[in-house]
Design goal:
alpha/beta; two-stranded antiparallel ribbon; 7 strands; 13% strand
């Protein structure tokens, strides 16, 4: 199978949006400038089947893409269907399908995880969240830590982990540096896709 040109490589930027619109648009614009075919719901760069739910359309977009860029932020998002969150399910589907993936994680998520790991209830036999309740708020949702731990493969012994890099960021320029480093060198990206094809016969 001939290798794709950069303009034929589809990269999906995950559907984390609210309170982040300008930065997300900047990332999508940069990837377009680099020549990629970008898939992203916020910027209207996603095919929408009117017979499907938002959740189903986003998962189909993951299946369609060649590369996946996930962004983990302190806000869990409003795209929740029952117990499922669209952003989290996109991430899980991308990993399940063995799409080449990259992740950015906001500093506040990393900090909160480290802080909560150092906290414990004074009463023996209790779990932290048995005695501490973090109410829903606009600053931080502790469920974001669950996404982060899934991405860094916290459930796997450290010595057995691979593909668990999540780049910490706080400012837009830090995100853009990471995006440029990963995607500006076209041969690097094409070689990753060739390795994927050699490993499992897909794309």
């Amino acid at each position: 199978m001939p290798s794709k040109s950069v303009s034929e490589i589809k990269i999906m930027v995950g559907s984390t949006v609210y309170g982040f619109e300008d930065q997300l648009s900047a990332i999508v614009a940069q990837l377009v400038t680099l020549g990629y075919d970008v898939i992203n719901s916020h910027t209207g760069r996603i095919k929408v089947d009117p017979n499907l739910s938002n959740f189903e359309n986003c998962l189909k977009a993951v299946e369609e893409c060649d590369l996946f860029l996930g962004i983990i932020r302190p806000y869990y998002g409003t795209g929740n269907i029952r117990e499922e969150n669209i952003t989290f399910e996109e991430i899980k589907r991308a990993i399940e399908l063995k799409k080449p993936y990259w992740f950015l994680v906001h500093r506040d998520v990393v900090f909160a995880r480290q802080l909560l790991k150092k906290m414990k209830p004074k009463e023996d036999g209790k779990e932290l969240f048995d005695v501490v309740e973090i109410k829903q708020n606009s600053l931080f949702d502790p469920r974001c830590i669950e996404i982060y731990e899934y991405v860094i493969k916290n459930h796997i012994p450290v010595e057995l982990r691979n593909g668990n890099w999540a780049q910490e960021f706080y400012r837009l320029d830090e995100m853009m540096t990471y995006v440029d480093t990963q995607f500006s060198e076209k041969d690097f990206v094409k070689n990753i896709l060739k390795q994927k094809e050699a490993n499992n016969g897909q794309q």
